[in-house]
Amino acid sequence: MLYFISDASKPVEYISCGNLASKDGFVHPKRNIDSFVLIIVIKGTLHITQNMTNYDVRENEFILLFPDTLHYGYRQTEGELSYYWVHFYVKDPDYSIYNRGSLLRNRPIFKESTDITSTPPPGKIFYFPNTGSYLWRSVQGFSSCSFLILPKEKIICPHGGATML
User: Fold this and answer.
1) Interatomic CA distance for residues 88 and 8, integer angstroms
2) Which secondary structure element, helix H or strand E, spans residue 72, and what is its range?
3) DSSP code of 106?
């Protein structure tokens, strides 16, 4: 697993968002783009490759796709697929992407504990794994939910994609 780390005082820049819905046989196109993409699967399984690693992102799971990194579908979906996506830029020029070992070595906040799933102190850093799971009924308690509040007052919500507040 990889972890995205950024200065929490520097906001992200919203680009676009939406909802993909497919009845059957969807394959994510091959892309290498200059922005981050957060994909949150609502129904079905998205089969996608990033950094030569295949991921099966299932219902109630997410994946963070990194900029300037090739990603593509490695097989067709079976049955329905629905996911929300949001493209964004990170304003922190010093953001980092770490694997677990380098995260523990390079981030003092995590050296005190090997539990890298603990929440860092608020306002210090933004920490986000590249894959994981969530429950919609607890999305308001999701530790990274504040990340989803984007410029232009848009927020990812469980019942309707990007909604103007």
Assistant:
1) 15
2) strand 71-73
3) H
pTM: 0.74
pLDDT of residue 40: 94
Question: Among residues 45, 17, 43, 13, which one has the least CA distance to residue 163?
Answer: 17
* Spatial CA neighbour of 85 closest among 32, 20, 138, 150: 20
Reading the block at residue 32, the tokens are: 């290498």
How is residue 61 written in tokens?
């799971």
Q: Supply the pLDDT for residue 3.
A: 83
Pick 144 or 21 by higher pLDDT.
21
Interatomic CA distance for residues 79 and 143, integer angstroms = 31
| Helix (H), strand (E) at residue 62 | strand 61-65
Strands 71-73 and 81-90: unpaired
Mean pLDDT of 62-72: 95
Apex 103 CA angle, 117 and 15, nearest 5: 80
Nearest Cα residue to 126 out of 10, 3, 8: 8
